[in-house]
Amino acid sequence: MVSADCVWMNGEFVAFEDAKVSVLTHALHYGTGVFEGIRCYDTPRGPAVFRHTAHIDRLFQSARMYFMDIPFSRDEIRAATDELIVRNGFRGCYIRPLVFRGAGPMGLYPLNSPVEIAIAAWEWGSYLGDEGKLNGVRARVSSWRRIDSASVIPAAKATGQYLNSINAKVESEKAGYEEGILLDTRGFVSEGTGENLFIVKDSKLATPHFTSDILGGINRHSVIEIIRDLGYTVEERDIARGELYMADEFFMTGTAAELTPIREIDDHPVGTGRPGPITERVRAIFEDALHGRSERYAKWNDLVEVPARAT
Ligand code: PMP
To answer: Ligand 1 centre and the CA of 278: distance in Å?
Structure first.
């Protein structure tokens, strides 16, 4: 169970144990929420949130797609998050802003229910384990397909949509794998349960496009930039399942998983079965960027501003 001293809720800092909602919260019944997963790193220049503004922009975008007006500005949310980190005494942490339809008229029509917002933060290590992050994880293609644009909005990070990832996660864990890979409804590779995917073949990289109903990962975006800066090509395109078996290297990116190699897919070793050289090269630069050790990518380290009243 994660914990912290306080949570920011609807404009106020409240004790962790007092951050509560009604059982008639619309989002609890119908999944009408949108959220973010963000990490703050202890960098040489102080705590810095990785691409904080990009995450806040995606939160607003997700909210807009489901007709939710967030009752705070982007700047207010950023300042509240910074203050939350300081008040909790964190230097590195995971941050979870959640915008949701609260208690209002019951029934499916959500637009008359209030839009509430909470931001929680806690200390969280590597999502798929230190060993997995270092040496790679074993993944398998899920029997569940990625939710598609005919039914929901895959580009929105919406709470209800995560039952799809949860189905794949439970299936893969029960079968003894660390991660499940979802195909899109056409049968092309889409993403992991909470990560975007990259393959390397003959020193060329590829990653599924939005047409495979991916969530547009902020780390995917950063890693594409790093790859291109290194002089490699990375194509956004349809990827056939079989390409996973033929890939020299295979890795995934996400805020929780950061950059995690995949060492085995559907019981086939990927390449040599060890993280490959391009994965390692990209990962080293990406890790430096996350931890504020890279001058080139310092633009991504949004330093936590200590509010005057919290010191
Ligand atoms: N896909 C899904 C379904 C996710 O939940 C996440 C995590 N937010 C990602 C991809 C990766 O996105 P990001 O790099 O922004 O964390």
So the answer is: 22
CB 117 within 8 A of CB 62: no
Tens digit of pLDDT for each residue in 35-51?
A: 999 999 999 999 999 99
Q: Which of these is catalytic: 157, 169, 204, 299? A: 157
Which one-letter DSSP state was computed for residue 289? H
Kindly report the protein residue whose alpha carbon is nearest to atom 13 of ligand 1.
217
The number of the ligand 1 atom at minimal distance from the alpha carbon of 222 is 14
Residue 203, CA distances (Å) to 195, 233, 248, 277 in order: 22, 8, 8, 10
215 lines ligand 1 (CB under 6 A): yes
Position 309 scores a pLDDT of: 60
**Which pLDDT band, with edges at 50, 70 and 90, does 59 fall under?**
very high
All domains of the chain in start order, with CATH: 6-122 (3.30.470.10), 130-290 (3.20.10.10)
The whole-angstrom separation of Cα 39 and Cα 144 is 28
Would you list the DSSP string of 95-150?
EEEEEEE-B-S-SS--TTSPEEEEEEEE----TT-HHHHHH-EEEEEEEEEPP-TT
d(CA 259, CA 256): 9
Bridge-based pairing state of the strands 38-43 and 46-50: antiparallel
Q: Is 157 a catalytic residue?
A: yes
**What gap in Å lies between CA 88 and CA 6, rounded to an integer?**
7
pLDDT for res 297: 98
